[in-house]
Specification:
This protein is mainly alpha-helical. Helix content is 68%, strand content 5%. The protein contains twelve helices and four strands. A four-stranded mixed β-sheet has the order 1-2-4-3, sandwiched between helices. Helix 1 runs parallel beside helix 8. The two termini are 30 Å apart.
Length: 295
């Protein structure tokens, strides 16, 4: 909760600073004269939708994740394997200083696991049947430690907050630039009633797409960086050799993931993307090398 409060205050501070700068340099008056845009109002509007949408997704993340993969939550262990899984997650959670997360298993052939949730103390850790059937318990323990570390580090919240800030500025810049470009293309003709035509809509959508791609580079950079931290946490909680062994097993079984896009970034094995800059996970070889070098 403190992280979200600080995030909201930071956004308000950014909006205030940008509004003051725009006023001091006359940018707000210039933009209004040339396009009819109130920069402060537009920024506030974009913040509501950009940040609000990201936070709503975060709050719904557990429910969406469970529905997307058909995960079955373990309320009470019924088998020795489920009891071991339950006890291992509980031990890692205690060692990491977080509340006991929900534990779920979902039916999928790929080797994967993910964590999600809006709070360190109300998270979800889910594991695929493919991973449970292909790794030994030591390796599974390290993978669970990796996911618990994501929760302990607040990675789900931080990623959502970063995405919210970027959403805000993508929407804001696309609309401001779209209005200015549309105004320039129309020349000196006044927009009837201050309205915008189809040209503004098309330009704004194109700019939002382009700026969105650039924003994705920042999100994916953070996602790759946090994977190294989660690997280190998995090594600490489940054993360095076991974490390396788990990653080596993932390498041998690399393939398409069945995880929906909404939670792929929180999986253990995903390397998605068409190029390194768009990958949510670093190459497994680099992750193994980092662990072997003690980082």
């Amino acid at each position: 909760m403190l992280r979200i409060v600080l995030f909201v205050l930071t956004n308000l501070a950014i909006m205030l600073v940008l509004s003051v700068v725009a006023h001091l340099f006359g940018l707000d008056r210039w933009a209004y004269a040339h396009s009819g845009i109130n920069l402060a109002g537009m920024l506030a509007f974009c913040a509501v939708f950009g940040v609000g949408g990201s936070l709503i997704s975060l709050l719904m993340s557990k429910t969406i994740a469970k529905m997307s993969v058909g995960a079955q939550v373990i309320e009470q262990p019924r088998t020795t394997d489920e009891k071991w899984l339950f006890d291992t997650v509980a031990q890692h959670a205690r060692n990491a200083g977080i509340g006991m997360p929900e534990i779920a298993v979902y039916d999928a052939p790929d080797l994967n696991a993910f964590a999600t949730g809006a709070s360190r103390n109300h998270a979800l850790v889910a594991v695929s049947t493919g991973l449970l059937g292909s790794m030994n318990r030591n390796e599974v323990s390290a993978v669970l430690g990796h996911e618990i570390t994501h929760v302990a580090n607040g990675d789900m919240v931080t990623l959502a907050l970063i995405q919210g800030v970027l959403n805000t500025f993508v929407m804001f810049l696309a609309r401001v630039l779209g209005s200015l470009i549309d105004g320039a293309l129309q020349g000196d003709r006044d927009r009837e009633g201050g309205g915008y035509g189809i040209g503004y809509f098309i330009i704004t959508m194109v700019l939002q797409l382009v700026l969105g791609v650039l924003a994705t580079l920042i999100v994916m950079w953070f996602s790759r960086w946090r994977e190294f931290r989660a690997d280190a946490g998995g090594a600490r909680l489940g054993g360095r050799a076991n974490m390396i062994s788990a990653l080596q097993t993932l390498t041998r079984n690399a393939g398409e993931t069945s995880l929906p896009k909404a939670v792929q970034a929180f999986g253990i094995s995903g390397e998605g993307g068409i190029a390194r800059l768009f990958m949510s996970h670093p190459p497994i070889a680099e992750r193994i090398a980092a662990l072997q070098n003690g980082s």
